[in-house]
Write a sequence for this structure.
């Protein structure tokens, strides 16, 4: 059982009111009334994210409170290691970043470091984490570079020895000089190769600068020795010339490294500033309309230097992904984040071929996609494979296709994350020849529209194999050359106007009948006009024959309730829909049919 928003509020209050020595796994579970239902992983992930969020704040934080959170993370690391539980690599990386995030917080807010907090809390937890979960660093590129520099140093020492031999042996043959000169040429070519490699490897700048300094010192020493040798023997002049050239290359390479490092630092600073300013602009436009002058004033009130050109550039970039529109126009234009208009109570037409005896469709619901891992992608492949093998070319999805990332108050980071998952879905969801996926918007998609875009419309605008059914409710009309021969209706009730406790025994008949009466009254239709009502949102797998409706379970979530439904519709040339057969499917390594439910509508209710 995951931590809910209410759980997190109560948990923060509990932590503030108790000393760290009184905070244990079972004491927190007991306080929340969920003993044994919340895992160590959920706790440590939540506390780790709390620490990161604290360090991301602008303004003074409570070091005492953050110290409790950091200590709790350290305690859970120890407890989980003792019990043999696994801490994810992502969480371990986040814990190891605490000191760096605290340093960023101090610089950003111009706050003095709390040495006691840093050394006896943050660094001790990081040290404990690294001790229990060692992180191996093995870079073949770094090793390759170190070997190359050492080879270069060895060859320079070899050249020194050759020069000393030449000083002692005045009568050496000209061929020996040519050979030594050739080695210097090879050395110069190898250094040129190292220079090209350095341009591409930003991560090794520090090691390279240290090696270059050592190399330059050796060259200076060699130059002195060459000067002495040249005064005694003119034949050694070519060596000095070669080393002068080599020294010049090292100096030039050092400047390139320095310029590159400066350029990268400036780019990182500008990108960080852009993200901060976009967050300030987005937060302002969520609340009220504002002109460019007013946006600049808000930015400057936060102590950040900017100008009109920068504000205009950032606003243009944001409008490419967020629905920011012009507002009223008096003396100057204003802008505001607006929710898109949602299509409700839509209609979806299916053409039924003449003399068709039956047709098949797939019913799915509540995918709640928040990332595209192997499980999600395999689930789409499994769905497409079943449809291909069973002659199904239409999948009807009853809402909550995406899970979405939400926060109160709304902020720019969550807006970017929500749009990112939709853009990623456009590219990675597997396609299947001749199979179409029609999606009804659920309450999770409606939450995402608060950030200024419609996720279902974005997906269906970019993918020809996806169809937009609108929000709340959609009527599926079965049409033939003689006109409409039958209808059935899809629903994803709003969590706000449909107050049902889904943790209990599910929806009552009265609940459902009241909801359906309101829906059909608003449309000016009768329920007898629909052959059956099919629901998402409930996370239930249930068929109510007498009341003429059924619930479709979630496809990805849950252990025992995951599933889908293969629906076959039989036709009669006189009456239209003759009857329907619902075939519930369980989700495992493949979709498996459990049983068949034959349904024929009874007109009187």
């Amino acid at each position: 059982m995951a931590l809910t928003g209410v759980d997190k509020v109560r948990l923060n209050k509990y932590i503030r009111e108790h000393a760290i020595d009184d905070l244990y796994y079972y004491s927190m579970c007991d306080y929340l009334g969920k003993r044994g239902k919340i895992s160590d992983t959920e706790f440590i992930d939540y506390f780790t994210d709390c620490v990161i969020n604290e360090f991301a704040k602008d303004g003074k934080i409570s070091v005492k409170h953050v110290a409790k959170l950091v200590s709790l993370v350290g305690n859970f690391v120890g407890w989980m290691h003792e019990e043999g539980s696994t801490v994810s690599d992502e969480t371990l990386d986040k814990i190891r970043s605490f000191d760096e995030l605290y340093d960023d917080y101090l610089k950003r807010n111009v706050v003095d470091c709390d040495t006691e907090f840093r050394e006896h809390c943050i660094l001790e937890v990081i040290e404990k984490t690294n001790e229990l979960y060692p992180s191996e660093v093995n870079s073949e590129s770094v090793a390759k570079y170190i070997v190359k520099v050492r080879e270069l140093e060895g060859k320079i020492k070899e050249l020194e020895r050759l020069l000393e031999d030449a000083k002692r042996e005045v009568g050496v043959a000209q061929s020996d000089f040519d050979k030594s000169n050739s080695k210097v040429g090879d050395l110069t070519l190898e250094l040129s190769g190292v220079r090209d490699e350095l341009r591409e490897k930003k991560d090794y700048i520090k090691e390279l600068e240290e090696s270059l300094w050592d190399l330059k010192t050796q060259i200076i020493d060699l130059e002195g020795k060459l000067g002495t040798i040249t005064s005694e023997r003119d034949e050694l002049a070519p060596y000095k010339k070669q080393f002068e050239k080599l020294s010049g290359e090292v100096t030039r390479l050092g400047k390139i490294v320095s310029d590159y490092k400066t350029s990268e630092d400036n780019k990182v600073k500008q990108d960080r500033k852009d993200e901060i300013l976009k967050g300030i602009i987005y937060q302002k436009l969520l609340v009220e309309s504002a002109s460019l002058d007013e946006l600049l004033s808000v930015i400057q009130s936060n102590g950040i230097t900017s100008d009109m050109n920068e504000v205009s550039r950032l606003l243009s970039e944001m409008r490419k992904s967020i629905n920011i529109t012009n507002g009223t126009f008096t003396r100057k234009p204003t802008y505001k984040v607006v929710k898109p208009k949602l299509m409700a109570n839509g209609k979806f037409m299916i053409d039924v071929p003449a003399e068709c005896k039956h047709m098949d469709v797939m019913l799915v619901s509540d995918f709640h996609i928040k990332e595209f891992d192997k499980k999600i992608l395999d689930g789409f492949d499994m769905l497409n494979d079943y449809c291909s093998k069973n002659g199904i070319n239409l999948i009807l999805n009853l809402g909550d296709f995406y899970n979405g990332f939400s926060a109160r108050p709304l902020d720019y980071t969550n807006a970017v994350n929500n749009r990112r998952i939709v853009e990623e879905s456009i590219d990675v969801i597997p396609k299947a020849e001749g199979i179409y996926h029609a999606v009804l918007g659920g309450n999770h998609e409606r939450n995402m529209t608060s950030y200024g875009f419609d996720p279902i419309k974005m997906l269906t605008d970019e993918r020809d194999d996806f169809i937009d059914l609108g929000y709340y409710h959609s009527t599926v009309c079965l049409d033939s050359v003689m006109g409409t021969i039958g209808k059935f209706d899809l629903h994803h009730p709003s969590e706000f106007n449909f107050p049902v406790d889904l943790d209990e025994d599910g929806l009552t008949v009265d609940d459902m009948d009241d909801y359906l009466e309101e829906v059909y009254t608003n449309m000016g239709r009768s329920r007898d006009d629909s052959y059956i009502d099919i629901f998402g949102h409930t996370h239930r797998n249930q068929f109510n024959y007498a009341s003429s409706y059924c619930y479709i379970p979630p496809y990805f979530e849950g252990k025992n309730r995951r599933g889908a439904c293969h629906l076959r519709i039989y036709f009669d040339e006189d009456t239209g829909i003759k009857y329907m057969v619902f075939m519930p499917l369980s989700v495992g390594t493949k979709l498996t049919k459990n049983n068949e439910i034959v349904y024929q509508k009874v007109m009187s209710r």
